Amino acid sequence: MSKHIDLKVEQKKQNNGKTLIMNNASLVSISDFSKEDILSLLEDARCFEENPNRDLLAGKVVATLFFEPSTRTRLSFETAVNRLGGRIIGFSDANTTSSSKGETLHDTIMMVSNYADLIIMRHHLEGAARYASEFSPVPIINAGDGANQHPSQTMLDLYSIYKTQGKLDDLTITMVGDLKYGRTVHSLLMAMYYFHPKFNFVACDELRMPDEYKAFCDKHGIEYHEYHEFSEDVINSTDILYMTRVQRERFTDIMEYERVKNLYTLKNSMLCGSKENLRVLHPLPRVNEISYDVDNNPKAYYFQQARNGLYARQAIICKVLGIKVK
Amino acid sequence: MNKIKKEELAVAALKNGTVIDHIPTELLFKVVDLLGIKNLKNSVTIGFNLDSKKCGKKGIIKIADVFFHEDTLNRIALVAPNVKINIIRDYEVVDKHTVSLPDDIYGMVKCSNPKCITNNEPMKTHFHVINKENIILKCHYCERAVGKDNIILK
Predict the structure, then answer these.
(1) What ipTM was estimated for this complex?
(2) Among the listed residues A275, A311, A317, A267, the one whose alpha carbon sits nearest the alpha carbon of residue A160
(3) Share of chain A above pLDDT 70, in %
(4) Looking at the partner chain, which of B112, B118, B130 has a beta carbon nearest the beta carbon of A127?
(5) Among the options A12, A74, A83, A122, which is catalytic?
(6) A297 and A269 Cβ atoms separated by less than 8 Å
(7) Are strands A118-123 and A61-66 parallel, antiparallel or unpaired?
(8) Domain check: are A130 and A247 in the same one?
């Protein structure tokens, strides 16, 4: 079983560039967005960064349904709603809801849609948000469905890249660590498709970039190189260094984990010869893949990156509700 | 009477109905299952291991007085893409065509991903056919792809 690389971008081109955002304006996958959608969201995010407190959601109720716990994403979305003047209902633990009594997702969504203007949901089952978007009378924003999609993370990654580089086009992006299971690197790779990137994939054999994503690059003429070694040569040619966590539970062979776990750790000394514009990104939480001595380097950007999530999510919320930002 | 004629007679001529021909022998009983033939009340003739110029050995199914919906027949393409359908009316072949996979398949295939929502909610599955030649499907919900050899029929 493998994951197929979806190319809704192609379908969009066939539709004369018309934006085909999703059923009832929900956002389920980053590939629901066209290039124009992404660029307008980045502009909106920039406006929110200038002034995050705007009463654009006054009188609206937003439900945050976290069937699976995720403090970071939930707080970011809830802050976004609060700063937009909306009100929040919801739960952060499915054990306290009717799901634990055996209620179907369908029934929970139908019930909540009676009360809310928008549902932001995270679910441990893959495809849950797509399914909910098919019958929900109000828009759905996918805040993560298992190992499948997490489009608001990708938007904040794109905004962070755009903000730090001043552009999205023609950048060299080096992805390091878990390239096999990390949904953030897969979604970022696909979203960057529009912007003529060059990729370096740095990982051990067990966690290398899956073939279908490399086939995606081949098909669209995206240059990429694979490395086992996390070397300064690679870092020195890079604009964006995207680090990910290597998780022990991903390994079938624990000896292999022990062997590679420290091979993909970024240390401050490794950034000595790097480009001036290089920035280090990480979706967080970090464990030991970025040494603490990197934190004070001006090129470390992961904490600001997390803050950008607020602006990116404000932009997404307004977009799915059809609210103009300016 | 030539050999082929005799063979056709051996599996009974059909006045009205559907003949499903050129089924690879090893897939014959899968096709029987797929069409729910064992639940039919009509007379059905099943030929197994018949000689075929095209594929060495073949299977054939003749179903009297049943005209399947095209979507039902196209399900066969999921397991055997080159099967021929003959529609018979008054002993004449009035239509002859090869089965073809539809673009989307609803409710027929089970997703092989245990963490897919379709395996956990009372809902219909939905697959996109992303490669008709090699038979590769993609779950509309969890977005996992599944190849011909791993397709699980419901």
Answers:
(1) 0.84
(2) A311
(3) 93
(4) B118
(5) A122
(6) no
(7) parallel
(8) no
